[in-house]
Amino acid sequence: MLDAVFPIPTRALIRQGGRACFFRLVNTSPLLIQVQSGTKIVMADDKALRLEAGAYGLLPDYRPLTMENIPKAPQKYQTLALPVPRQLFEEAYSRMGSIAVPSRPVPAGTSKLPEEAAALFDYCCQPGNLTRLPGAIAKARLMELITWFALCGAVLGQNQSPRIEDRLRQMIESDTAFAWTLGQAARSFNMSEATLRRKLAAENTGFSEILSDTRMNRALGLIQTTTLPMAQIAFEVGYDSPSQFAARFKERFGVNPRHVRGGSERFERIGAEVEHTGADMVAR
User: Fold this and answer.
1) Angle (nearest 5°) at CA 281 between 280 and 283
2) What pLDDT is stored for residue 111 in this prediction?
3) What is the pTM of this model?
4) What mean pLDDT is reported for the chain?
5) How far apart, in whole angstroms, are the C-alpha atoms of residue 178 and residue 128?
6) pLDDT for residue 3
7) Domains of the chain in sequence order
8) Which terminus in the chain has less CB density within 10 A, N or C?
């Protein structure tokens, strides 16, 4: 552990065989990323961030994003992603002093990272490197990496007022296979079911919607970052039936889960939300 608050981050290698556009993806931790093959386009507030192979970027937490991952044949799309606790960003920025922190969290690309910064990113992403270090040193390395990204233009925006939806997503994400109920969630938050239902309604959402969406976001991440069979992924996100899982996944994302991994289906744009940008558009 970095300390009692910060667990050691574990990098994810995201691979995707088929081109697909995913709407309303929510990260529960900020991500520092490098696109290694293909193209990534991220949409927020009708603005597109395009990252080509070799580019670095920052994706915010608890901000619904539209993303497209575009493989470049014959290679699959591939991105290295390092989740870093928000508290480390805030501590790093406070030490920098003069950094201008955006009022809202939005995706951000960097200018070209210096060799030292790129080497540090690779170091932090190598399995076992951070865990072998004393916690204080591992924390310092991550904060140095955050500082490099900030100096190159990728700064994490200010934390928005915490929402019940965000807390609920974090709870469900801790065990997406568990049979969560509204009552269990309400007890965890020390409130009645009626109060939780009312608070979620005030955020224009509901318990079942968040439960399903968190599970599908988790499933997408498992498809992109593991070689687990689809039946196992279905089980990991609370589905006993792989066919039922596949149907729900396609309903949520507009593509079959096997297309995401293997790219066997014809690509279709899902919705028209980003068509007006004229970009070569768009998709845990």
Assistant:
1) 145
2) 86
3) 0.86
4) 89
5) 29
6) 52
7) 12-151 (2.60.120.280), 164-262 (1.10.10.60)
8) N
